[in-house]
Fold:
Amino acid sequence: MNKNIIAAVAQKDIKNTFSSKKIWVPMIILPLFLCILLPAIFAYVGLNTELIGESSKDLEKPINVIIKNFPNEELRNTLSALPTLGYKSVYFFLNFMIIPFFLMTAIINSMVTSSNSFAGEKERNTLETLLFAPITVSELFFGKVIASFIPTIAITFAAFLLNAVIVNLITYRIFDEILFMNSTWLLLMFWVIPALVIFNIVLNVLVSARVKSFQEAQQFGGIMVLPVVGLIISQVSGLFFLSPLTLFLIGVGLLVANGILLKIITKFNQRNTLFESQIH
Structure:
């Protein structure tokens, strides 16, 4: 495969992504709200007012049960030692509950960019030019995967860094520790999320190549959000927690799946089928 051609396809797609407000505006708003504003507001309110503590009194008993049965002894002791229910709620929320928010942000943003790949070309009436160009289908696919990966990862990591700075400015005087700088979060950001983004992008690019519109491609991509919703419910209920080992194994599974999907792409050379499914 020609790296220069792949880079050219990626650059063109990235430019198209950020030239369309219906694509890049949601990509910014979602992490801004879920990964930055919501954690910061929750932390500030929980640590500086009695609002969360008072509103959570009915949940005090189940929260204490979750803490008592928490699998990580160090974190269990830390949570138990916090003096108020508000402090415990904030610490638990910041360490565990916002993990699915970052996963959801990565999934949705990668879905938006990758769904716009072939389906977007069809809507812009530019796919014919690409299909007649001296470029292999594999190069086209890889270029579009890279074009979706770069902005998704950049926005997700920017949200993580801003969240870490803002939240730690609010919480450090109370917890006397820097949050988000532990094995769970490092594995999440540098192992699971990149693998998950690639997996979601490759799936959506393959789907986008088969459907005729951006909306159709997004409908399929929305299915990937469902496991994250289930994860949120399990975290709240205390049924399941994302430990470092669990995150590592999830990353390994995604890595294997990515290898299989990328191998499929390298063998995908049905230019006529792709042309007919999009043009006619």
Remarks:
- Residues 213 and 242 are 36 Å apart (CA to CA).
- The chain has a mean pLDDT of 80.
- Residues 3-279 form one domain.
